Amino acid sequence: MAIRILIADDALFMRNMIKEVFTSNEFEVVGEATNGTEAVEKYRELTPDVTTMDIVMPQKSGIEAVRDIIKINKDARIVMCSALGQESLVMEAIEAGAADFIVKPFKPEKVVEIVKKVVQL
Amino acid sequence: MDMAKYKELFVSETREHLQSLDENLSLLQKDSSHAEAIAACFRNAHSIKGMAASMGYEAIRNLAHSMEDLLDDFRQGQREVIPEALDILFEGLDLLEKMVQEVALDKTLSIDPQPIRQRIESFRGQSTMDTAGTTPAKPLTPSQNEKPEPGHANFTLRMVLAPETPAPGVRGFLIFKRIREMGKIMSSRPGLEEIKTGKFLDDKNGLAMEIDLSTDAAQTEIVNAINSLAEVQGFEIREYRGAQSRPGPAEPEIMEGPAASVMASDPFAASPLPQTVRVKTRALDSFINTLGEMILIKSELKETAKRQTTPGLSQGLDKLDRIVKDFHDQVMEIRLMPLEAVTGRLPKAVRELIRDEGKKAQFEIIGKDIELDRAILEQLTDPLLHLLRNSVNHGIEPPGERERAGKNPVGAILLEAYRQRDMVLIELRDDGRGMDPFQLKEIALARGFIQPEDAERMTDEDALQLVFLPGFTSAQQVDMVSGRGVGMDAVRSTVEGLGGFVTLASELSRGTTVTLHLPRTIAIVNVLLIRLAKEIFAIPINKVQKTVEVLPQHLRQSQKQKYYIERQELIPLLELHRFLDMPLPENKQFPLSALLIEVQKRKLALVVDEFIGQEEAFIRPLGKPLERISGLAGVTMLGDGRIVFVLDTLGLV
Q1: Domains of chain A
Q2: Which of B322, B323, B421 is the closest to A12 by Cβ?
Q3: A81 and A67 in contact (C-beta within 8 Å)?
Q4: ipTM of this model?
Q5: Which of A54, B427, B430, B467 could cross-link with B391 by S-S, CB 3.0 to 4.6 Å?
Q6: Does B500 fall in a domain?
Q7: CATH no. for residue B376?
Q8: Is A117 in Cβ contact with B329 (below 8 Å)?
Q9: pTM to 2 decimal places
């Protein structure tokens, strides 16, 4: 059963990069969101196994989106994507319920490792 | 492709090492003191580790690394080669073979070496403690702050992260949080606050943290839980020994408890460094410049790489490409500032304008938190002020007039900013009298900008665009707020110089909306390089629909206009030279090189002398006074250092 992934990031470039990581058939990218609000909507609609969430996004921040998604499903698995220097925001997201995080520039193997581990939680 | 060739090489060489490992481990089974066999095993594991690391096979690298460590212990005489150790190594060997097989078959690497690595580490940890006369591995400086729960088992967990783990503070925090879910944390080394700042215990393998946990979970459950943590390279679990006072390097380890307040009030307790720094804005500008150069050089290298087949070169360049793009993202993030930096002083200026004009209006700003690159923000003040002045002067009617028209005597002016993908849109909207296409045409006629025939044919929409003509607004109009003569053409050229564009919408007596479409960051853009006479110009690729080679059979002529035929569509064909006042080439030979572009819903074919190529470029704004020239979107530097102008097709035609 492929792991179903929702990618939330406002930059097309980043979404494409992350999608590239999940090209094997262990994964299926089931949707993309370009802002926090869309992320929550798509989560509700698609109920992915894992959501990758950019921290800084327009309309609703990644952290708020995490809170909203956890309200929908307390076992939702969310992996935050951040750039270096956003450590305290990542920790805030983790407190809000994010399960793990990846830091740009990320190594594809690392992303895969983290996503697989998060799914097994 | 190169990647595949390397993979084959990796597989065959690694298999040789695995074979050698097998043979030498078997030798050791028979004779555990065989020094040469130990040395050979160590070398094998070391080589496998290195090769796996360069290919990016982390799992293989990590397992080989753990085995190498154990073999090193043997080699240094720190550990006896006992059957139990060899068993673990054989298992590791087995696993390595399976992993290499996965690589060979191009399967996704699914084998997880963590469990066996754990066992190797545990084995190494235990043995060290059991061996008499050797110094204990790490000094435990516990200070008991939380008592263990009665009836619970208590463990000391030691996690080691690789030294290059990204954001180790956050990783440590996450680990801490997960472990806390399993029971009660009695103490930790370092303390949580220190871990969050990225401070760890030193360990020859990386960054270490220890947590004393009181839990009713079974040991296997705990081990499973730690296994589920990402990025934990090494892990050790021991029975909790309870409080032992040891002299030694004081490591803060407070969790909760009465002792905490004592430590906290220690004036010499180290406080973490601040999380933010101040940076000179000049540094930010030099980041961007250096980044631009990096991109050029990288493009150059890629071109060179195409012509040669140095092994590993194109792989390396692909990685470089990604890294440069990521770096670009990061630098862009740093350069972002909220719109508020510019809009902060607007309300006051607008209030004064309104008062001076004897009007009544409310001014609201939405979206002041939207972030843009600082270089773009810097240029926005003048245009925004001008647009606001227009609204107040020409847009909003005097209160009496508004009332007579059935409107609220207090007008509304709204500045709204929002993001649309990679652009930021800033809308300036008022509910005033709107722009009258008829009046605009009259003014344009009177000033000689258009001929009567043009005015006849012009749609209302096109009439609105007349305001952008240079000099359309009266030359005497001086901006009272900024003290300079400005006009809508200045607004447009500024915005276009930043890589954006302006749109207008208006309805008589309902109001006017001017929208600035701005790029959020100074983008790296793909440009097409073309030659006109002796000059080279660049055009952003996204503005070019396609490039064509025009042959005589593609041409039609009608009166004075030449057309290019494509799929039965007549597209006006013009020489780009005309728009730039450049001399037309003599003796035009077929095929002609032309670009197909679309400007305001009309297609055009522009003839150039030659297509030179494509490049990724970093477009910089022109700045004054060049930015006033319509048709120039900015400037960029070629790989060889030449500066070329970037054309703006909208402004040109």
Answers
A1: 3-120 (3.40.50.2300)
A2: B421
A3: no
A4: 0.91
A5: B430
A6: yes
A7: 3.30.565.10
A8: no
A9: 0.40
